[in-house]
Amino acid sequence: MSAAWLAEIPARRLVEEGLEERVALAPGDQPLVAVGDTVEPGTALLARLRDAHVEEVDVRAPDGEALIPGSAFTALLTHRGRGDAQLEGELLAPVPNRARRWRLVTGEHRVTVGAVAGGTVTAVQPGSEIRIALGGRAVRGAFGAGQAARGPLTVVTDALGELRPGGIDVGQVGNILVVGSRIDAEALTRARAMGIRGIVVASLAGKELRDFQASERRQRAALHPAEPFAVLVLDGAGRRPLSSPLAALLAGLEGVEVAILLDPPALVFDVPDLPAPAMPEDWVRVRGGRYAGAEGRVLGLSGVRRFAGGVHLEAARVAFGEDEAVDVPLGDLERLG
Amino acid sequence: MSTTQPAFLTIDRGTATAAAGLIGHVGGRWRLLGAAAAPAEIADEALAERLRRRLAAVDPGFADDLGLASAGAAGDLVRLTCSTETPPELAVVAATDRAVAALANVAAAAGWRVRAAVVDGGDILETVAMLADRRLDGILAGVSDPPNGDERSLLAELGGLVTAAAERRPDLLVVLAGGLAGPGAKTGALLRSERPGPTVVAPAVDAQDGELLRALLDELRGGSREGRRGLAVAAGTLATVLRRRIEIVEIGQASATRIAAGWQPGTTPDIRSAVVADAALLPRGFGEDELDAILGWLTTSSDRLRVRDRLRDMSLAAWSDAAGDGALLRMAAGRAALARLRDETAAFDDLPPPDLLIAAGGCWQPAPAPAVALAVADVMRRPGVRALALDQARILAPLGTISDDRERALIITDLRDDILVPLGSVVLPGGLRGGGVAGSLTIEAGGGPVKIDLLAGGLELVDLAPGEKAALNLQFREPVDLGAHARHFAVEVVGGLAGLIVDLRGVPLRLPDRAEPRRELLAGWQGVLWEEAGR
Question: Chain B within 8 Å of A10 (Cβ-Cβ)?
Answer without folding.
Answer: yes
